[in-house]
Amino acid sequence: MPDNSENPIQAAEVVLPCKELESTLEFFTKKLGFQINAIIPADAPMVAVISGHGLRLRLDREGSGSPGKLRLICRDPEEFAEGSTELTAPNGTCIEIVEADPLLVLPPEHQSFVLNRYSSDASWEVGRAGMEYRDLIPNRQGGRFIASHIRIPEGGTVPDYVHFHKIRFQMIYCYKGWVRVVYEDQGPPFVMHAGDCVLQPPQIRHRVLESSAGLEVIEISCPAEHETWADPDFDLPTKEVRSNREFGGQNFVFHQAAQAEWSPWRMEGFEYRDSGIGTATKGLAGVRVVRPLNGAKPQVCSHSGEFYFLFTLKGGITLTCEGHGSQRMEAGDSCVIPAQQLHALKDCSDDLELLETAFPAEIETQLHSIQGFL
Questions:
Q1: CA dist 70 to 29, 127, 220, Å?
Q2: pTM for the complete prediction?
Q3: Domain housing 199
Q4: Greatest Cα pair distance in the chain
Q5: Integer Cα distance of 351 and 228 in angstroms
Q6: Based on the number of CB atoms within 10 Å of its own CB, is 156 exposed (0-12), middle (13-18) or buried (19 or more)?
Q7: Cα torsion 176, 177, 180, 185: sign
Q8: Rounded to whole angstroms, how far apart are CA atoms 331 and 334?
Q9: Which residues, 6+ apart, have CB-to-CB distance to 71 below 8 Å?
Q10: pLDDT average, residue stretch 67-78
Q11: Peptide bond into 232 cis (omega under 30)
């Protein structure tokens, strides 16, 4: 237990107005399982101090204002509240009954074409732990996906903390600079360099420790809005290394660009290095870096996947997309191409590199006639 002898604050109470003190006290103790800490005064009670479930309440006959709302996080809400989602205490306090670990709810698919340009769309917002975020998919594909360009302008220690995410999918690609991180059951802290990436499986505890000045990463998550929980009592690194452990049916991945091999891509004239995320997610999603070979020729294609995202890491390329004409994509630009939409990649610079993220990992591509399209 921490030593609070030097802390001037010894406790905290939530004050609830309570003219119906006797019946409210009975409700909180017998129905909700709170314990009595104090009755003041004993002969004619005006105040009752109760505690339970990590909370301390002060029920005050002379209190004023709203009776408030409490959330009770239950393992089995239906059994506890006998099918109700809300209870009302005699003093009017609303008791909201919620599931302790609810199932992850995915918004329905809502695919659309999105082109984000670094030169004109680069609006940065300060997010968690002082990191700066740039939203690459403002419409979030109906809330199903989020892609963020994240940077830390100043190098050094990052004011992060041990935390985890309740997610379906999340990956981090180191775009520029380096960052030192640590993950649950994956050994001591390690450094990600430009070109490296990790798969952060659901609810794995992790922490960002320090970074170079000008660190930039690309983060892609599903769903767009997800819970991030701090876990201050969890120590990292963990003593045991369990590199094959599954988190939510997925394995942790640390892909290092320096050790990667290149293979022919599904489109002729390109090659790719695979991150291993497709295998680790059992086919849910794939992450690759793609570059052209000599003499790459444009091909018109479409896909039937759930999500298809490209980020231009280096160089430039022209994207021609049905209904949206031809767009030149330079370093820092990105796009989402919806299913069944005809598109082609052409006029690649020699130094082109694209970061590709696809759902599912082995996205099905159909080739179409080039005549009349380009």
A1: 15, 28, 34
A2: 0.87
A3: 114-257
A4: 93
A5: 37
A6: exposed
A7: positive
A8: 9
A9: 96, 98
A10: 88
A11: no
Q: What angle do CA 343, 348, 351 make, to 5 degrees?
A: 140
Whether residue 123 is found in the same domain as residue 221: yes
- 77 CB contacts (<8 Å, ≥6 apart)? 85, 97, 98, 99
Q: At residue 154, what are phi and psi to the nearest 5 degrees? A: -95, 135
Question: How many Cα atoms within 13 Å fall on the side-chain side of residue 324?
Answer: 18
Using CA atoms, how far apart are residues 284 and 111, in angstroms rounded to an integer? 17
Per-residue pLDDT, averaged over 111-130, amounts to: 86
- Segment 240-280, tens digit of pLDDT: 999 999 999 999 999 999 999 999 998 889 999 999 999 99
The number of distinct structural domains making up the chain is 3
Q: What would the mean pLDDT of 328-349 be, rounded to a whole number?
A: 96
3-state class percentages of the chain: helix first, strand second, coil last, to nearest 5: 10, 45, 50
Q: Where are the alpha helices (DSSP H) in 108-205?
A: 118-121
β-sheet with 325-330: strand ranges across: 325-330, 316-321, 343-346, 300-303, 365-368
Going by the DSSP 8-state scheme, the letter that residue 102 receives in this structure is: P
Residue 44 lies in a domain: yes
Whether 1 shows a pLDDT value over 60: the answer reads: no
Residues 239 and 330 in one domain: no
Cα–Cα dist 186/244, whole Å: 9
- For the beta carbon of residue 161, count every other beta carbon within 10 angstroms: 13
CATH number for the domain harbouring residue 314:
2.60.120.10
311 burial class (0-12, 13-18, 19+ CB within 10 angstroms)? buried
